[in-house]
Amino acid sequence: MPQLNPNPWFFIMLISWLTFSFILQPKILAFTSINLPSNKTITTTKTSPWNWPWT
After folding, report:
1. HSE of 5 in the Cβ direction (CA atoms, 13 Å)?
2. Model pTM?
3. Which own/partner contact pairs does 27-36 have at CB distance under 8 Å and 24+ positions apart?
4. CA 13 to CA 20: how far, in whole Å?
5. pLDDT in tens, the chain (55 residues)
6. How would DSSP label each residue in 9-48?
7. Distance of alpha carbon 33 from alpha carbon 38, whole angstroms
Protein backbone atom coordinates (compact mmCIF):
# COMPACT_ATOMS: atom_id res chain seq x y z
CA MET A 1 0.00 0.00 0.00
CA PRO A 2 1.67 3.25 -1.06
CA GLN A 3 -0.18 5.30 1.60
CA LEU A 4 1.97 3.73 4.31
CA ASN A 5 5.22 4.68 2.64
CA PRO A 6 6.40 7.88 4.39
CA ASN A 7 9.26 8.47 2.00
CA PRO A 8 7.96 11.28 -0.25
CA TRP A 9 5.26 12.66 2.06
CA PHE A 10 7.39 13.12 5.15
CA PHE A 11 9.97 15.05 3.16
CA ILE A 12 7.28 17.27 1.61
CA MET A 13 5.72 17.93 5.02
CA LEU A 14 9.10 18.69 6.57
CA ILE A 15 10.08 21.11 3.81
CA SER A 16 6.72 22.88 3.94
CA TRP A 17 6.89 23.34 7.73
CA LEU A 18 10.45 24.61 7.56
CA THR A 19 9.46 27.02 4.79
CA PHE A 20 6.59 28.30 6.86
CA SER A 21 8.63 28.55 10.07
CA PHE A 22 11.72 30.26 8.72
CA ILE A 23 10.55 32.24 5.70
CA LEU A 24 6.84 33.02 5.84
CA GLN A 25 6.25 33.38 9.57
CA PRO A 26 8.72 36.26 10.16
CA LYS A 27 7.27 38.10 7.16
CA ILE A 28 3.72 37.68 8.47
CA LEU A 29 4.68 38.71 12.01
CA ALA A 30 6.44 41.82 10.70
CA PHE A 31 3.11 43.42 9.79
CA THR A 32 1.85 45.86 12.38
CA SER A 33 -1.74 45.92 13.42
CA ILE A 34 -3.72 48.95 12.27
CA ASN A 35 -6.07 48.98 15.23
CA LEU A 36 -3.81 48.87 18.23
CA PRO A 37 -5.51 48.28 21.57
CA SER A 38 -5.89 51.45 23.58
CA ASN A 39 -5.84 51.97 27.32
CA LYS A 40 -9.47 52.90 27.73
CA THR A 41 -11.19 52.55 31.03
CA ILE A 42 -13.86 49.91 31.09
CA THR A 43 -17.26 51.36 31.86
CA THR A 44 -19.75 49.07 33.48
CA THR A 45 -23.38 49.51 32.61
CA LYS A 46 -26.03 49.13 35.26
CA THR A 47 -28.59 46.59 34.27
CA SER A 48 -32.03 46.36 35.74
CA PRO A 49 -33.69 43.00 36.31
CA TRP A 50 -36.37 41.93 33.88
CA ASN A 51 -39.84 41.90 35.34
CA TRP A 52 -41.51 38.79 34.01
CA PRO A 53 -45.29 39.10 33.87
CA TRP A 54 -45.96 35.55 35.12
CA THR A 55 -43.90 35.72 38.32
Report:
1. 4
2. 0.44
3. none
4. 11
5. 456 777 788 889 999 999 888 888 888 888 877 776 677 777 788 888 888 787 5
6. HHHHHHHHHHHIIIIIHHHHHTSPPSS----PPPPPPP-P
7. 12
